[in-house]
Write a structure and sequence with these properties.
Keywords: Disulfide bond, Glycoprotein, Signal, Transferase. This protein is of the alpha/beta class. Helix content is about 35%, strand content about 20%. Bound molecules: 3'-phosphate-adenosine-5'-phosphate sulfate.
Length: about 270
Amino acid sequence: APAEFVQASFAMTQDSMDLDPDLPSNISEEVTSSPPPGTKKQIPQSIIIGVRKGGTRALLEMLDIHPDVAAAATEITIEKTPGYFTSALAPERIRAMNSSIKLLLILRDPTERVISDYTQVYFNRLENHKPVQAIENLLVRNGALNTRYKAIQRSMYDIHMRNWLQHFSLEQIHIVDGNALIQDPLPELQKVERFLNLPPRIISSNFYFNQTKGFYCIRSDGRERCLHESKGRPHPTVNSTVLQQLRSYLHEHNRTFFRLVKRTFDWQ
Ligand SMILES: Nc1ncnc2c1ncn2[C@@H]1O[C@H](COP(=O)(O)OS(=O)(=O)O)[C@@H](OP(=O)(O)O)[C@H]1O
C-alpha cells in the first residue's frame, strides 16, 4: 500500500466542521511511492484541488491503481486537498511551488454537491454532539435562498474557476466529471491517464459494482476494496420548492462556468 498521509505543502485555513472526516485540517493526502529513509518528499507533479464532496477520494484511490502512480521509485506523485479549489490563496501558492504542475479538478452537479456538503457537516456535528438543523433552515433565510451559506458558495464553480484561471492556463487544469466517475469510472480515468501522460494501465476489471454500497469499488493487486462508509451516504430529501430555488440559482453560475472552461456538463 502506498504511503498515504504526508504533511501538506502548506496549511490552508478551513472551517472546523468542514473537514474530510478522516483528516485533520492541515494534513493532505498523497498517493506516492514510499521514499527511501532519509530522502525528501517530492513536490507533487499533480494535485487534486477539489472540489470538496466532488469525489476527490474516489479519484485518488482509483488513480492509485496505476503502477506509475503507486509503485516504488516510479513516476507520479499526486496529492489531494479538496479545499484548494474554493480557496482564494491556493492558486497563487501552488503556482509559486510548481508552475508546471498538472491540476486535477473533480466536479459534480453543484446542487447535489451542496446536499452532500450539508450531509457531511450534519454527520460531523452528530458525532461531536452538536445541534443539527434541517437543510432547508440553512438554505433559506428570510424567505429567500441564503447565498451566504458556505455550501452554496462552494458550488459557485465559476467564481472559483476565475481565480484559478488568473494563475493557470485552462490546459493545465483537467476537469473530471464526478457524476460520470460514479456511473462508469474507467472512461474518466483514461482521460486522466492521457492528461498526465501516463501509459494506459487502468482497465475495466479494476472495477466492480458493489450492490450493497451502490457504488463501484476497486480491484487491484489481488485485493477488493470499497471507499469508506462516509463516502456515498444517503442524502436527505429536500423540500421541492427550496430545491428548485437552489437549482435555478446555480444554473446561472453553471452557464458562466461552462463558458469559462469551454465545455458543458450534464448538470440538471
Ligand atoms: N466509487 C465511489 N464510492 C463512494 N463514493 C464515491 C465513489 N465515486 C464517487 N463518490 C462520491 O464521492 C463523494 C465524496 O467526495 P470527496 O471524497 O471529494 O469528499 S471530501 O470532500 O474529501 O470529504 C461521495 O459523496 P456522497 O454521495 O455525498 O457521500 C460520493 O458520491
